[in-house]
Amino acid sequence: MENKLQILLNTQRLILRLPNENDITQLQAFEQRNREHMSPWRSATGEQGKDHKAQLIQWEQEFKEGKSVRFLFLLKEDPEGAIIGFCNFSQIFRGPFQACYLGYHIDAAFQGKGLMSEAVAKAIEYMFEQQKLHRIMANYMPSNERSARLLHKLGFVVEGCAKKYLLINGRWEDHILTSLTNENRVS
Fold it and tell me: Is CB count within 10 Å lower at the N or C end of the chain?
């Protein structure tokens, strides 16, 4: 896989970029460091023995087909250093809907510093302005207070609660449904 796709977004403290095959080791390290930190919020499906190279190839193909966009977060002060987080805009719908779903994770060592809101705000700007989407949807478990605060800060509006929405760690978990439309976003 030779990734010639280059999108670089800059914030005050971060660089956001598309993943490439050189990130395999860093992605594995990120998952290893954060397995316990992310486990309450992630499905265990497919986590064991993940083929990161195949996953990166799939992500590149989905990007080329306009189905998803994923950004890795790196500190500006150490652009060749560790991946400290990522966000993904998946299931991109075109036609009259012009929408997608947002997901995100940050390294446990970097949470609580405002980096996630800084990164995701920039990525949302890209999705609205460059990808021309109208609506971004994000869902979170009611117990995930950090996600609730992040989405509220970014201007997402609660639309309801989906009962037993996703299978997380062997249990069907309720999720709060939120969305942000282009005209309602926080700049």
Answer: C
- Distance (Å) of CA 124 to CA 78, 80, 128: 23, 24, 6
Residue 149, number of CB atoms within 10 A of its CB: 12
- This prediction's pTM: 0.89
Q: Which conformational region is residue 47 in: left (phi greater than 0), alpha (psi within -120 to 50 degrees), or beta? A: alpha
pLDDT in tens, 25-56: 898 888 888 788 777 667 655 454 467 888 88
Q: Are 35 and 59 in contact (CB under 8 A)?
A: no
Output the six-digit token pair for 165: 């929405």
Strand partners, 14: 75
- Domains defined for the chain, CATH in brackets: 8-133 (3.40.630.30)
pLDDT digits (tens, 9 = 90+) for 73-115: 999 998 788 999 999 999 999 999 999 999 999 999 999 999 9
Give which of 123, 104, 154, 131 is closest to 15, Cα–Cα.
123
Q: What is the DSSP letter of 184?
A: G
Beta bridge partners of 69: 89
Q: Which of the 8 DSSP states describes residue 45?
A: T
Which helix (H) or strand (E) covers residue 99, if one does?
strand 99-106
